[in-house]
Amino acid sequence: MPRGEIHPVHRVETLSILDEEGTLDRSLEPEIDDDLLLGMYRHMVRCRQFDARMLNLQRQGRIGTFGPTTGQEAAQIGAVAAMRPEDWFVPSYRETCFSLWRGVPMSGLLLYNAGYNEGGRVPDGQNDLPISIPVGSQMLHAVGIGYAIRQRREERAALTCFGDGATSQGDFHEAMNFAAVFQAPVVFFCQNNQWAISVPREKQTHSRTIAQKALGYGMRGIQVDGNDILAVYAATHDALQRARLQSEPALVECVTYRMSMHTTADDPTKYRSEDEVEEWRKRDPLTRFQRYLGDKGMLSDDDREAVETETAAEIEEAWKETQRQMERMTDPLHMFEHVYAGMPDHLRLQRAELETALKSQSKGGA
Question: What integer pLDDT is reported at residue 330 of this predicted model?
């Protein structure tokens, strides 16, 4: 047969609505009511301040290692604001903004990062999976949920988060393929923050974009300015609606930047330049959104100060509540609780052995 070409059905789009200079494309501006816009802004401030407080607490040795979100607030909040409570959220380990918006208490995240299993408990009635540490594994879980949603003919979707580094994992490709073949209503949400720990994005893939990987699986892919909260909201809202109504999966790539370290166990100065970080600071999603709301007459300097003051007080109270919970959990036997719904036999045996040892120690000390 002669040589010819096969043209893919889909194409990869790119979307930017509010650029780093504050220029707005009004023809693309999504319809978001004022209350939601202000709620998104307040949450950006919450996440930025909470991130800074957790970093201080970690440096003081009061909580353990965690992955900061500074710089990625627009990507996370733009997406989660487009979700419905009945949608399923399947996170990685850097989704603080998602989790707080969805209803996880600050004290819970602090408790979890302080090393207490109890803090990782998902509140009752919340369609969220726990934090997933192994890179990429959560995408398979999301596809399983999406498949179940389709089988039950429910009007909801699953959204799963991952970074650019996770697209090098086999789990990513398996999940994408399954979702496309079975038309599972899953939105694959990639926060391309340019670095997978110390490995730059260009060493993860030779593709011009991550979004174009969707084409190989026959699903829609879009690349968005991940520091533009309006573009993220518009793209994610559209993807979720297609998933809910047409059981159509999609890949959304948000081009953003991790302005802090990968985790608090990492030193980014060893592998990236301050000039690079400074260039991305000029694209700060928080200041961009502040300018947008100010231009709309929705946010004054007094308003900003009030939000920052209220948020600081909320974080302070959350830390006090975390300390109160830690003071109540001094029994070593607590380490066996809140991990499984039903304790497996091997842990039940270990718990009994530790309980016996503690009683023996107590008698010896007496």
Answer: 83
- Is 340 one of the annotated active-site residues of the chain? no
Does residue 304 surpass a pLDDT of 60? yes
Residues 6 or more apart whose CB falls under 8 angstroms from that of 300 comprise 294
Helix axis angle, 73-80 to 285-295, nearest 10°: 60
Pairing relation of β-strands 199-200 and 195-196? antiparallel
Any catalytic annotation for residue 11? no
Question: Could you confirm whether 292 is annotated as catalytic?
Answer: no
Pick the catalytic residue: 242, 262, 283, 288?
262
Closest CA to 41 of 313, 320, 310: 310
Catalytic residue among 11, 271, 281, 328: 271
CATH class of 12-330: alpha beta
pLDDT at residue 45 greater than cutoff 90:
yes
The beta strands (E) that lie in the chain are given as: 12-15, 88-90, 158-163, 186-192, 195-196, 199-200, 220-225, 250-255
Query: What is the C-alpha separation between 230 and 287, in angstroms, rounded?
Result: 14
Does residue 7 register a pLDDT over 90? no
Domain ranges of the chain: 12-330, 331-366
Please report, as a single letter, which amino acid is at residue 345.
Answer: D
- Identify the active-site residue in 53, 258, 283, 288: 258
